Amino acid sequence: MLGTWWARLLNNIAGVLAPQIPTPTGDFESISTQSLTGATSTITFSSIPSTYKHLHIRGLILNSSTQNNLAFQFNSSGGTAYSAHQVQGNGSTTAANASTSSPYAYLEGLVDPSNTNAFVGVYDILDYANTNKYKTLRGLSGQDRNGAGTVQLTSGLWQSTSAITSITITLPGYTMGNYTTFALYGIKG
Known about the structure:
Elements: H1 2-17, E1 28-35, E2 42-45, E3 54-61, E4 69-74, E5 82-89, E6 94-102, E7 105-109, E8 119-126, E9 135-143, E10 150-158, E11 167-170, E12 181-187
Antiparallel strand pairs: 1-12, 2-11, 3-8, 3-12, 4-7, 4-11, 5-6, 5-10, 8-9, 9-10
C-alpha cells in the first residue's frame, strides 16, 4: 500500500515539475541515474568521465529517518577540505548558514519524516575536471510542506585541484527513503 502511495506522489510531483523543469537536452548528456528501491544513506556516482565542462545533478529526495543536511563528497575525500553557504526562505522568514573545515559540502536540509512531501534539487559542479583550481558547486532546491515549504540557494567548495571522478551524496548518519532518485548529466563546453 505504501509503495503505491509513494508511486502516486512521485507521479504527481513529476506532472507538476515537468513543464517547469524539462529534461536537459542539447548540451546535456545523461551519464547515470540512480533510483533507490530501499533506504540507504549514500548514493555514489563513480568513473565519471573528464570529457565535459561541468556536471549537473537533479535529485528527488525522500527522507526515511529524520531531517538532516544533504551532503556532497568528491573522490572519497573527507578531512576538512569542504565549506558551504546556504540562504533559505519559507515565505515569511529567511535564514543563512555556513560551514567550514568540514568532511562534506553540506547543501541543505531535507524533508522531515513527519511530512509526506518530497525535496527537489538541482546542483551544478563547475569545472569539475580542471586541475588548476578548487571545485565549486551550487544548488537550488526546495520542498512543499502543505503551504509551509522552503526554497534554498546553496554553494559549496572543495579545496582540491584534483579532477572529480566520483561523487558521493549522503545523509550522514541517516537514510534516504525508497524512490529517492538522482540523475547525473555532463554539460558540454
